[in-house]
Amino acid sequence: MPTTLPLVPLVMLNLLGLAGIIVWHLQGRGRPNARLVVQIIFFAAMTATLLAAQVAPFRFEGIHEGAFARFLVDCGKVLWWTHLAWAVIGFTRIYIVLDKRPREARLIQDLLVAVVYLGTTLSMMAFVFGVPIGTLLATSGVVAIILGLALQNTLSDVFSGIALTIGRPYVLGDWILLADGTEGRVVASNWRATCILTSANNLIVLPNSVLAKLGLTNFSRPTETHQIKLPIRIAATRPPGVSMEVLRLALDNCKVISKEVPPTVALKDMDAMGIDVELLFYVSSPGERVAACNEVIDVIYRHCAENGVSLAMPAGSYVFGPQSSNGCPLTPTMLSPRELLQAVPVLAALPPNERKAIISQATTRQFPLGATIVAENETFSSLMIIQSGVVCRRRNGKDIERLYPGETLGARGLLSDTPESGSFEALTEVSISVIAKEALDNVIGSHPEFAEDLASRLSRAISDEQSAADAPPPQTGKAPVLWAMPNG
Fold first, then answer.
1. Which CATH topology does 228-307 take?
2. pTM of the predicted model, to two decimals?
3. What pLDDT, in 10s, does the model give residues 189-213?
4. What are phi and psi of 217, to 5 degrees?
5. What is the pLDDT of residues 402-425, one digit of tens each?
6. What's the topology of domain 165-218?
7. All structural domains of the chain with their residue ranges
8. 370 to each of 47, 262, 299, 427, how far by Cα in Å?
C-alpha cells in the first residue's frame, strides 16, 4: 500500500457505500430484482473506487498517515464487504425464484444467508481490523462443542427440518397421517417444528426431530382423492350376485362420494351365516370422509331394506330371537309403501292424523326400465316419493343427478307454475307413490310450516339447478331435489 493515500477516492468510497444502503432500503422487500440491480451497481462502483485508491480489501496493512485516513479506509472496507454480502444473498434469492423452488426452500435460503453473513463477518475481522482468525476459530471450536452439547435437542430439530425440506415428503397445505395416529393438514413449518391442523380444529406442534422419525402417509399426493374401505356383513339368504348388485346400485346413488373412480363391491369371505363384503369408494378430499360414510350407510340400509337383503351379525355372535331353519335370523321383509311414506322428511311437519290421511290417498305408479317419467320443460302439480328403483335426472343429454328410494319429489307445481328443468328417466324398474294436488291444498292452507318447508326445498332445488347449469355432475352432498308428477 502506498505511503500517501488519496483522500478523495476514500471519501467517494464511503459516500457510495452509504448511498447504496439508503437506496437499497428504499427499494423495499417487494422488489428483489431492483434491489439486486442496485447492489450490483453500487458494488461495482465501490470496487472501482477501491482500485483507484489502491486499497486491497483482501489484505490487512497498517496505515501510519493519521487517524482520519485510517478511519476512511476501515469504513470503506466494511461498506464494501457489506455490499458484497448483499449482492451474494441477492443472487441466491433470485436463483431460488427463477428455479421455481417451493416456499419450503426458505429454510435453505436462511441457512445460506447465515453462512454468507458469517463469512463476511470473519473476513471483516481479518482484513479490516487484523484480528487473528486462526486463534479465534480454535477458541470458538471449544465454545461450539459446549453449545452443541447444551443445544443438542434444538440442533437435532434444525437439521431434521433441513432434511425434511430437502426430501419434501410434504408441502404446506398437504393432508398427512403419522404413524402415531396424528392426522391433519400442514399449516406451518419452520426451523424447529411443524404445525398440523387436525379435523377437530386443534393445532399440533411437532418438533422436526420427532416428525423425521415417524412414518408418514401423504393423502394429498398425487391428488387428494382418498379411498375409503367400509366393511359390512350380509346374511346368506340371497345369491351373492344379487346382493352385490343391490350394493353396487346403492353406491352409484350416493352423491357425496367421487364418481371419477367407480365404487367397487368386493366379496371377502363367507360362511353359513353370512357374507363379508368390503365397499370401496373415493372422496374428493379427506375432510369429506365422515359425510361420505354417513351417506353410504344410510343409502345401503334403504336399498337393502327395499330389496329384501338382510344385514348379518358379526361372525361368532350369539343371536337370541326368531331364526330360520338354517339358523340365520329371519330375513326382514321389504318396506311397504305406507312405511316408506311415514319416513319421508317433508311430511314430518304434519300432525300424525293428517299425515296418515294424506298417505292413505297416495296412489302407486310403475315405470319400466328406460321409461321417461317426466319430459324436459314439462309442468306438473303432484307430489311423489320414489318407493323403489333409481331415477336419473338429465339435461341436454347429460346426467345431472340420481335419485333413490325415499327421496321426496315435488312441490314445484304446488307452489309455482315453473316447468321442470330437465327430464327424469327410470334407470331401473321404478315404483313411485303419487299424492295429488287436491289432497295437499287444505294442508298447505292450514299448516304454514308445511308450506314454508316445501318453499325452502323448492328454493334450494332451483339454486342447485342454476349452479349445475355450467358445472359437471356434483360430487358433494346437496339438498333434496324437488319435482312433481304430471296430472293424470
1. Alpha-Beta Plaits (3.30.70)
2. 0.49
3. 887 889 999 988 899 999 988 888 8
4. -115, 125
5. 777 777 666 565 666 666 667 888
6. SH3 type barrels. (2.30.30)
7. 7-150, 165-218, 228-307, 337-468
8. 85, 22, 22, 6
